[in-house]
Amino acid sequence: MEVEELAANNAPLTINEQVIVMSGQETIRVLELEVAGPLPALGADGKGADAMASEEGVASPVLEPSRGGEGTPGPEGTPTQEGAGAAMAAPVELPSPVVQAVTPVALTSALMTPAQAALPITVQAGTQFLTPDSLAAVMTGMMTPGAAATQPFLIPLSMAGQMAGQQSLAVFTFPTATMATLPGLTAVTPAGGVLKLPFTGLQAATVLNAVPPQLHAASPQTVLQSNNPAASPQKPAETQVSVATVQAAGISINPAVISAASLGAQPQFISSLATTPVFTSGIAGIPGITSQIITNAQGQVIGTLPFLLNPAASLGAGGGSPATLPAQTLQVQTVSPQLLVNAQGQIIATIGGTAAQPALLHSVAQTQPPAKPTVQGAAAVTAVSVSQAPVIIAPQPPSLKTMAAISAAETPTVSQLVSSKPQGPALDDDGINLEEIREFAKNFKIRRLSLGLTQTQVGQALTATEGPAYSQSAICRFEKLDITPKSAQKLKPVLERWLAEAELWNQKGQQNLMEFVGGEPSKKRKRRTSFTPQAIESLNTYFEKNALPTGQEITDIAKQLNYDREVVRVWFCNRRQTLKNTSKLNVFQI
Amino acid sequence: MEVEELAANNAPLTINEQVIVMSGQETIRVLELEVAGPLPALGADGKGADAMASEEGVASPVLEPSRGGEGTPGPEGTPTQEGAGAAMAAPVELPSPVVQAVTPVALTSALMTPAQAALPITVQAGTQFLTPDSLAAVMTGMMTPGAAATQPFLIPLSMAGQMAGQQSLAVFTFPTATMATLPGLTAVTPAGGVLKLPFTGLQAATVLNAVPPQLHAASPQTVLQSNNPAASPQKPAETQVSVATVQAAGISINPAVISAASLGAQPQFISSLATTPVFTSGIAGIPGITSQIITNAQGQVIGTLPFLLNPAASLGAGGGSPATLPAQTLQVQTVSPQLLVNAQGQIIATIGGTAAQPALLHSVAQTQPPAKPTVQGAAAVTAVSVSQAPVIIAPQPPSLKTMAAISAAETPTVSQLVSSKPQGPALDDDGINLEEIREFAKNFKIRRLSLGLTQTQVGQALTATEGPAYSQSAICRFEKLDITPKSAQKLKPVLERWLAEAELWNQKGQQNLMEFVGGEPSKKRKRRTSFTPQAIESLNTYFEKNALPTGQEITDIAKQLNYDREVVRVWFCNRRQTLKNTSKLNVFQI
DNA sequence: AGCATAAATAATAA
DNA sequence: TTATTATTTATGCT
């Protein structure tokens, strides 16, 4: 994407791209589109998207009219803009029929195979996004792992909007490429952008990488569906949320959760999301939805990654309608990738950034109302754009290196080294992506622990919502991958979805999470029992006679000693343990 | 940094700054300097840095002639240059004597107190960096927490280079500011850049924020030395690696681990680092060194963050010497922060690029007194500042619990104190940063778990290396902050150092970690006790010969091992199942 | 300051 | 899946 070119466009759109290469094999590409000014109201129904289409992977995304204009504004956030709300910018005129522009829109891609990474991904015109008025929407569609490169797919899309409807953020993820298989980071750098924005009017600006679409639309196939028939198959078209259609070549997408949070006013925002039926159901119902995660030291997920943020912002407040503000420049930045190495020295992710946007998003998010501290509104934005455009810098060095290496076989480079590594998604005999499952299992554990949940809690909660077959043991085995790939494949989407929802509730508060999970909030650790010497003596006497009393015996003993039955049971457990350890030592010594 | 200005410079240097605001209170500022062209060989010793000096931070950096004129232009843009590799760029002429330029150089800052954040940090001229030829080097020096603002300090520096010596990456971290205490994210943003690059020739470009140096060189003091006399004290001067000197005002640095990994060739790179005596010792010996972490859902560290990466690359191949390539522009990018939301919906970190961030503006306006923070240094900053200012974000709401009541009678524990303090950098009566400790405790736990270590293992390992007083209980209580601030303050650096080292070993392999931790490598999990070890062994022997014994065989085995026939039968069932699952998984892992 | 062991959580035989 | 064991964490006690 040429900076100058974009700048020249003067489109009231800001494109921020950020590429995060996950350890192992995932790459998350985040593209944020910010449109200054108010968004047009959504059509009665999102079907309009159907119109689009074409062998270019045009699908028929449906954009539903968002309901509940509860898009709550940022918390304290955007006082000014809100106030400014009065002066709404004129709607952006888009050539495509149904497309609605949102501000901002973030696209996150992840889990793309190397080969796929090289393929062009185009967001078709006609792609619809949620309007700011919509609280959130989620759509999911994905190619099967082995899908042809020509298949278009639907990607999860989540939008967060504000009352004013001025701004909102949509995020959807789609597979990118495995870092290892990439020629180098460069392969994934922004410079090599593969996204084509859907806004016809902004095309020049939006086209990061002009690549001829090579695919054709195909019916999206969710992983869940293919792998987990049992899982509730989702039909994108059926969802109420808006859908974005993207063309990708042979992309196999991993489910990604989409969540949103306002910067400063997170709480509120999140709450609204959580309480929004659409969103909630989307999360729960859509198998593939889950949050992106960062792998940690053991390849386990360190945390959920890409969520959106953004609350509406000052943009709307500031100024005139985007269309009317030619001055606003389109900004695109490429950032050199920043690597995040995990405990094992492995690259966890590469964070590359993009530019310009922070400001916008933030400003909005900002809780700090004190308005003008910074310069907001149209003028401010403009200035930024201008100044930044020039800034656009050359693609990061990494990219360069890669490029070079790739093009010329001469100098041994990173790419070569990389290439030496076996690549390609590991698919087992059944076409199951084992690597993907392994990764998820790790992530699941870390995420579970991050939420402070036990295997038991997860199992019980799932049993309650999904029916039996989710015992603590099952969870344990899944985490240990002590199950067959087939089973794992079946369990994965369920766990993914559940965990994502749990995280959502957790965002609303620990209390809410506990409520969601199991019920009793904040179950405290039982107070350590102190046995009286007499009790200890009695217990030991019983133990000598029978180290493994039956339930009835335990009950009797507890009753006689006047201790809680559970306490007595545990005492025996620990006593046996102690004896065992002791005996072992003896054995050892011997 | 004005883009134009930079560009005008035509310096073969690329500056990439990325700011990652950690949840709670840490900000990581990453500055990458890339110098196109080959690097000069390192001097005999890295002492050259001593020469550095002027209060302006201008020193006599030595810039080696970079080889491989890789100043690569934009990503895709400059494929050609790579090919040009043959033509080496002429060495860059630098006034300073000893400084060596490296490509790229990354600086990471973290854990700076708010007040400190506002202070200018200048990289003195004469700062030395490792040459590409060096595999890795680490230097650490830091101010004591209470050190005056005028003391310069050495920062950990790690370099990774390639054989060719063309490129390498150096990373060092230094404290930035506590997010909570900052006026907003903006406070920590790049806009308020405080780094002054050491390259005289590139000054215009490198000066993100022109701030008059306020400090003077002082002898670096490693945390290790102060906290862990036992640790092998490192003398920066003694190391062969290059050192970077930075001036900072009253900065108290947290130990940061520096590690490096090549992108594509990670394995190799890491290995080299690990095997490099200098590096290893540096890590082990330097107390302060630890990796940066990302806080997760529970405020716990999600993962270690900033490490370097970088493999040398094609850059070298490409081009002319930097000096001779005026065409190469200096690139500076500002990135809008990307928020990473954790499981609790809290912002884990803001990944943004750099510059200009709103933060500064904000900070200035709000809390930060330090005047002109916003526009500093040369003009470049100006432009960016202007545009981004608006973005300034509000600080996150840290823990708001203001609990209560610490009954005074006894010495309150950290957890009690922390909860009682509403906000701001919580410094207890002894000037201990409780918030920082709280954060660390959380991080420690996550990092420990990420390494798969138990409290017991940590305790035992520490007892072995640090002497008694590190029981499992102690570790447990530290994590739970069920100790007095004084104790925590004392324990923190030890744990920090140890964990960082453990992570380092872990990078070399799980085996190495176990060796480091406890001794017995890979102690296999004990089999369920129902069977004696001998029995298990026998069973496995039988299993190897025949995984599916006949009824008669089972009977015989049970008889011989003196176990119930049914027990043996079930054992075989489970054994087969396990093998099945495991084998499939293994296939995947490969 | 830390042992001893209760309580909690994960893993595994049945 | 359930029951029990294996491990780990937390805490009473002095």
UniProtKB/TrEMBL annotation, chains A, B:
Keywords: DNA-binding, Homeobox, Nucleus, Transcription, Transcription regulation
Classification via SMART domains: HOX, POU
PROSITE patterns from the UniProt entry: HOMEOBOX_2, POU_1, POU_2, POU_3
Organism for this UniProt entry: Acipenser oxyrinchus oxyrinchus
Biased composition annotated in UniProt, kind: Low complexity: 75-85
Database matches in InterPro entries: HD (IPR001356), Homeodomain-like_sf (IPR009057), Lambda_DNA-bd_dom_sf (IPR010982), POU (IPR013847), POU_dom (IPR000327), POU_domain_TF (IPR050255)
Subcellular location: Nucleus
Protein name (Swiss-Prot/TrEMBL): POU domain protein
Pfam entry (one): Pou
Residue ranges annotated for the POU-specific domain, each copy included: 429-503
